[in-house]
Specification:
It is a single chain. By secondary structure, the chain is of the alpha+beta class. The chain folds into two domains: about 110 residues; about 35 residues, no CATH class. It is about 30% helix and about 30% strand. It contains four helices and ten strands; from the N terminus they run βαβααββββββββα. The strands form three sheets. It has a four-stranded antiparallel β-sheet with strand order 2-5-4-3. Strand 3 and strand 4 form a beta hairpin. The radius of gyration is 19 Å and the shape is elongated.
Length: about 160
Amino acid sequence: MSTQRVSYDVTPAEAAAWQAFVTAWWERFRDEEVSAEALFPIARGVAGLGLGGGWWHSRTSRFGELLGQRRRCVIAGYRVTPNRTRRCTQMWRLLPVERLHEDAAGRAVAVAPMAAFVPSAEWQEIPDGYPCPPGGEYRLDFATGKNWARWPARDEARA
């Protein structure tokens, strides 16, 4: 089983604000796929995220940019993960990680185990974040948004 390391540097005030936001996000949506616009009401209620002033559209755009800067960062025990794009809108999910620790410089570092996945001749779901090797056949289930793959047997591949 492989691991993926994610690290980030933020001020203590920023870290506290983002931890409060991510905690509220998890309480409201869990690991559901959501847009930045759906998350904005939560973000608006957290001081210190740096949303700025101005009109609603400019603040939601700024929030989307800030969220994008934290893609794959681990905050409050959850990895901020870009999911698929739906109707030209980036969708987001929180994925819990098993453990957090600090590196030698005192930065928060997450070690998130990747789900076990062994290519086979049978169709199987590809876990989120799994890098797919070449040579497989892939399909996307539009109803669920899940990806599937199989690797044909060597006899089939030569035919």
